[in-house]
Write the structure tokens for this entry.
Amino acid sequence: MPEYHIEPTYHVFGVPLRTGSFYPGNENDAQAYRDVHIIERLRAAGCRVIDEGEIAIPNYLPHHLIPPIRNWPGPRIVWECVSERLIPYLQQPGHIPLLIGTDCSVVVGTAQALMQACGENIHILYLDGHIDGAAPQPERCMSAAGMGLWLVTQTSPFRPGPALNPSQVTVIGWSDDLNSPELGLRSLSLAEVRQLGAGEAARRALQSVPASASILLHFDIDVLNKREMPVAYFPNADGLSLREVQELLSAILSDSRVRIIEVAEYASLRDLDQSYASRIVELLVNGLQRPIR
């Protein structure tokens, strides 16, 4: 029987709270993307896009510095809200949630949703300046954003459901491992991406993912260097250029296995004229653009 191509539909969700990060205060970062017309620009690029508004998150979440996870159980409450909202879309072929305005801890909730909707044959492509795999320590309080990959790949009381095998995660473009323990993650460091070239690095990362797998693309903007993206939550002095990130995103976003896209760690309070939000949108538009029929 012939195979029929399903034209993707992108569902844009804002995640209006940074309970997994270090500082409170940037709870409405998704609005900056809308202010620079992300919906209209994606549609102009030939994409089917629906703005789904903000994922509803309780306004009573705690903020504290009690070890081991800052603001706990706030992050888990957010993950459950995110997962519950996304699952109905993921159960429909060709429907792809696009999350904006969030912190890196969201990967726990999105991975949970993808596994529940599509089974455990998933793979996370994690574009990030850091390996967010720090382990919880009883004497130290740390944000869930720096522990996301540990929480996803390790069985623990901090999250429900099965852990993802570390080999199902590829971290791309990192230069700081945050003192993460050896987890068995796949990796293409900043140095390796530069040596291979961004396009070849993306090709190799995609080639290592099983053909039947569903891909979660995590894009932390701090994979870019501070000169070109100073509005990252934790900007990196060294990092990829806009051109290199565009090559990575264009290759990955053209892959039909991508089922979730999340853009993390944009700090709108550092971007008063929203010029950098516009650059991030341009990266997405260039990666997702479809021929106009």
